[in-house]
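For reference, the entry.
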Amino acid sequence: QGRDKDNYTAFITVAPEGRSYDSSRLVVRGNTARFVPGLSRASTFVANWTDDRVTITGNTLAPGIKLTDKR
């Protein structure tokens, strides 16, 4: 993520504006998440607004990035 991202609290969001379909088959795999050099802030990799269990595996996260949270 860069310095000018409007909503830097999450890299990936699941159903922040509601949903029509179940998200439990969603798989987030093989990604690298980091901030631009020199930027230090807290963020979440996958922010989930549902009770669906999303599979998150095999990703590389930089310091300051929490794997997931329920919103």
